[in-house]
Amino acid sequence: MSEALMGVYNRAPLEVERGNGMWLHTRDGRTFLDCVAGIATNCLGHAHPRLVAALEEQARKLWHVSNIFRIPGQEELAARLVGATFADAVFFGNSGSEAVECALKAARRYHAVNGAPERIDIVGFAGSFHGRTYAAVNASGNPAYLDGFGPRLPGYVQLTIDDRAAIDEAVRRPTTAAVIVEPVQGEGGARALDGEWLSWLRRLCDAHGVLLIHDEVQSGMGRTGRLFAHQWFDGAEPDIMAVAKALGGGFPIGACLATAAVAGAMTVGAHGSTFGGNPLAMAVGIAAFDEIAREETLANVRAASDRLTTGLRDLVARFPDVAIDVRGKGLLIGIRMVPNNREIMALARDHGLLVAGGGENCIRLLPPLTITLDEADEVLRRIEATFAAARVRFAAAA
Ligand SMILES: *Cc1c(COP(=O)(O)O)cnc(C)c1O
Fold first, then answer.
1. Nearest Cα to Cα of residue 398 among 332, 310, 322
2. Which superfamily does 16-34+295-397 belong to?
3. 164-169: average pLDDT
4. pLDDT tens digits for 343-367?
5. Where do the annotations place N(2)-acetyl-L-ornithine binding (predicted)?
């Protein structure tokens, strides 16, 4: 590993050179089935022809101009996002953290301009992940991401999903601005929240004038088989939503979506970004949106998800000494492991399969939304071989 890089990552020893659909090829000639997909970003697979064409065409015209000018691509992609969601307006950044940052700022600003500047508290949940900026790590409250960076920011409250009494109490407080939640917790280990809980939270926020923020950075853009995960449920729509990861199909884009009431508080000068929403990002984002939002794509997610989860449940039943359960939603799938998940990830690599890690000792499968049923079967075969190897290795170690 290069000493010229900050050592903040635990990198797998693979030098990937080229990707094609859900396959990755390394410099030393090995081929892997990719169930990481750039952590749920390369949602249409690697080198998707339509995205490549959009990028190449725009690259010859104009990359970047600054938000002091009109950017037609932003207006187009925003119109698509607004047309497909609860939202009335969009702000574009470059990442999930920036989308979350904008969401948190917009929530506080909304109350400030509506005569309640004392409403600053953001309620977040254990097991969540919202990114790595100061606001995002404080909102998620994960001590591993907060330690050594000075005092925690004021105005962040940490609760657990299951403690409805504490949530109820927090939302009633006159200093609460917003609640932020991932409808499907991603990094936390593919924990899908149910519709009853999400709509209960929506009603609670409404009753007390508190804003609801959904972080759909990972669960959004088709990942669960609907364009956004909360759209599976009635009465669960947020006031503000952070979107990124798959939004650019692998190109860095983030977006904060909001209702007109919230967006109205974000007046000239309230927020900004140098690169956010530049023409290159928007050209790719529009192409990605149009592919992802096709009913065929979303139907494929649901079919592939059924195939994978059925097969995985069967494997868990056959390998109870290796895997505990299967959870998640759509193609955001977690498998809780008995052995350390990092060891399973390495064993999976030995079997030509790339998977991500997750909280609660999960391995996470985030294949592209375009995975075929044959590829899903191949994923299952490789997981079976991985579990069989794990059984031998960890039985020998015990
Ligand atoms: C990945 C992720 C983020 C952070 O996105 P970055 O692009 O890494 O800043 C925020 N929220 C959720 C739910 C994520 O999965």
1. 322
2. Aspartate Aminotransferase, domain 1 (3.90.1150.10)
3. 98
4. 999 999 999 999 999 999 999 999 9
5. 132, 273
Give pLDDT, residue 398: 64
Whether 289 is a known active-site residue: answer no
Cα distances from 148 to residues 122, 137, 140, 145, 151, in angstroms, run 22, 12, 16, 9, 9
Question: Is the pTM of the predicted complex or chain greater than 0.85?
Answer: yes
Q: What is the residue whose two structure tokens read 């991603």? A: 186
* Binding residue numbers for N(2)-acetyl-L-ornithine: 132, 273
What tens digit of pLDDT does each residue of 48-85 get?
999 999 999 999 999 999 999 999 999 999 999 999 99
List of E strands, the chain: 16-20, 23-26, 31-34, 89-93, 121-125, 156-159, 176-181, 184-185, 191-192, 211-215, 240-243, 254-258, 323-329, 332-337, 353-354, 356-358, 362-365
Question: Which amino acid belongs to residue 133?
Answer: T
Mean pLDDT of the chain: 97
Ligand 1-lining residues (CB < 6 angstroms)? 95-97, 100, 129-131, 182, 186-187, 215, 217-218, 244-245
Name the residue at shortest CA distance from atom 5 of ligand 1.
Answer: 96
129 a catalytic residue: yes
Give the pairing type, strands 356-358 and 323-329. Answer: unpaired
What pLDDT digit, counting tens, does each position of 251-273 carry? 999 999 999 999 999 999 999 99
**pLDDT score of 2:** 84
Strand, coil or helix: 32: strand
Domain 50-292 CATH assignment equals 3.40.640.10: yes
86, 121, 239, 245: which is the annotated catalytic residue? 245
Ligand 1: centre distance to CA 358 (Å)? 13
- Where exactly are the structural domains of the chain? 16-34+295-397, 50-292
Is 245 known to be catalytic?
A: yes
Contacts of 158 by beta carbon, 8 Å cutoff, 6+ apart: 124, 125, 126, 141
